[in-house]
């Protein structure tokens, strides 16, 4: 079929139908003009808010100019897929148990990168079957792509004050993925911002990482500290990390729009290996072989064993100090890893102390 004979509006409608059939809750189409987002990105990088995430600045304007990343790109097909595996009340209960290991709910199941990428490839395959070969490339948080601004332009939601994408009917607990394509599909209308005067996400952040509405200093964010940061976690943030050993869901749990968040329909996103109910002491006793086995096929594995134990040590330092916690921490005082030893020493000192250090959350935002 020649391009001149294509009914692009009809094709876009089919793509959305096929997307829903493949398990995406929503599909939208955006153009490639990200000039406003590019200005925000430049300001964010200039302020150093990306911390040690050097890759955020490594690709120049390819991140904000899709045609530079994939020459010929005219449109971006953006999709979202719900991931919440349990009710928010259950998530809060887990977070409030200091002996429990809290892991951000998006990562409890199979690696979402692989799940969404496979579905997007299938979606592209259906398009090819309909119109013949066409130019495209699939992305799932795996390349220099401004996925949230693109999703917002595609009408999937708006970027909230916590910098996550929010959908009025589904909250924010969903994954995003993209197909860059040279097919000139009609674009969808953007959604207006509905955060209003609400500051719940800003107020609840344990480390005051949301330094202003729509401004996140990643260097203070628990997700960055427990996932992206490979060295020592700054001591000023350790008490506020609490029992969070991989990521942080606080700003999403408190968002009023997440009362509409829907439980996932994907079996792949359901918790595996009991990580949704694991205790800190249990996880601290894992050796590297156990870590690799229990995180096989999971995005958790990307942080590596050393950072995993580092994170659990900090959480144990924040746990109530029964003798078992102290004995557990002491078992790694001579760990071969200097990184682990340093965090274990801090955790033991904190746990033995009867005083209560001021939490970062009680200090003014910087």
TrEMBL record:
* Metabolic or biological pathway, per its Swiss-Prot or TrEMBL entry: tRNA modification; tRNA-queuosine biosynthesis
What are the entry keywords?
Answer: 4Fe-4S, Cobalamin, Cobalt, Cytoplasm, Iron, Iron-sulfur, Metal-binding, Oxidoreductase, Queuosine biosynthesis, tRNA processing
Biological process per Gene Ontology, one example term: tRNA queuosine(34) biosynthetic process
Copy out the cofactor comment: Binds 2 [4Fe-4S] clusters per monomer.
Which GO terms fall under molecular function for this chain's record?
A: 4 iron, 4 sulfur cluster binding; cobalamin binding; epoxyqueuosine reductase activity; metal ion binding
Q: Domain 4Fe-4S ferredoxin-type: where?
A: 185-215
Catalytic residues, chain numbering: 141 (proton donor)
Q: What is its EC number?
A: 1.17.99.6
Concerning InterPro entries, the annotation shows: 4Fe4S_Fe-S-bd, 4Fe4S_Fe_S_CS, QueG, QueG_DUF1730
SUPFAM superfamilies of this UniProt entry?
A: alpha-helical ferredoxin (SSF46548)
Q: Which residues bind [4Fe-4S] cluster 2?
A: 205, 221, 248, 251
| Major enzyme class | oxidoreductase
Keyword Membrane carried by entry: no
Q: Where in the cell is it found?
A: Cytoplasm
Q: Which reaction is this enzyme known to catalyze?
A: epoxyqueuosine(34) in tRNA + AH2 = queuosine(34) in tRNA + A + H2O
Chain residues that bind [4Fe-4S] cluster 1: 195, 198, 201, 255
> Its family?
Belongs to the QueG family.
The protein's role, per its UniProt record: Catalyzes the conversion of epoxyqueuosine (oQ) to queuosine (Q), which is a hypermodified base found in the wobble positions of tRNA(Asp), tRNA(Asn), tRNA(His) and tRNA(Tyr).
Q: How does it assemble?
A: Monomer.
The protein depicted here goes by the name Epoxyqueuosine reductase
Record organism: Methylocaldum marinum
Q: What is the lineage of its organism?
A: Bacteria, Pseudomonadati, Pseudomonadota, Gammaproteobacteria, Methylococcales
User: By which gene is this protein encoded?
Assistant: queG
């Amino acid at each position: 079929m020649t391009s001149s004979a294509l009914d692009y509006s009809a094709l876009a409608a089919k793509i959305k139908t096929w997307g829903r059939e493949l398990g995406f809750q929503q599909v939208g189409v955006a153009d490639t003009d990200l000039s406003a987002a590019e200005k925000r990105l430049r300001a964010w990088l200039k302020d150093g808010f990306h911390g040690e995430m050097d890759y955020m600045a490594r690709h120049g304007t390819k991140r904000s100019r899709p045609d530079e990343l994939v020459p010929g790109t005219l449109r971006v097909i953006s999709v979202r897929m719900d991931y919440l595996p349990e009710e928010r009340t259950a998530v809060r209960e887990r977070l409030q148990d200091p002996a429990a290991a809290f892991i951000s709910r998006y990562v409890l199941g199979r690696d979402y990168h692989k799940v969404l990428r496979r579905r997007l490839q299938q979606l592209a395959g259906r398009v090819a079957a309909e119109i013949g070969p066409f130019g495209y490339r699939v992305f799932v948080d795996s390349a220099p792509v401004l996925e949230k601004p693109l999703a917002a332009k595609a009408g999937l939601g708006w970027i909230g004050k916590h910098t996550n994408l929010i959908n009025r009917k589904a909250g924010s607990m969903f994954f995003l993925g993209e197909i860059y394509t040279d097919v000139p599909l009609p674009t969808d209308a953007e959604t207006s911002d509905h955060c209003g005067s609400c500051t719940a996400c800003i107020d609840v952040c344990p480390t005051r990482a949301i330094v202003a509405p729509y401004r996140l200093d990643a260097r203070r964010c628990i997700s960055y500290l427990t996932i992206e940061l490979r060295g020592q976690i700054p001591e000023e943030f350790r008490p506020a990390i609490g029992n969070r050993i991989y990521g942080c869901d606080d700003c999403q749990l408190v968002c009023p729009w997440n009362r509409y968040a829907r439980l996932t329909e994907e079996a792949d996103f359901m918790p595996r290996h009991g990580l949704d109910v694991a205790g800190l002491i249990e996880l601290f006793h894992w050796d590297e072989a156990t870590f690799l086995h229990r995180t096989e096929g999971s995005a958790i594995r990307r942080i590596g064993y050393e950072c995993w134990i580092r994170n659990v040590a900090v959480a144990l330092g924040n746990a109530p100090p029964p003798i078992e916690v102290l004995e557990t921490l002491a078992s790694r005082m001579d760990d071969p890893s200097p990184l682990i030893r340093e965090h274990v020493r801090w955790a033991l000192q904190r746990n033995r102390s009867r005083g209560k250090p001021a939490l970062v959350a009680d200090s003014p935002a910087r």
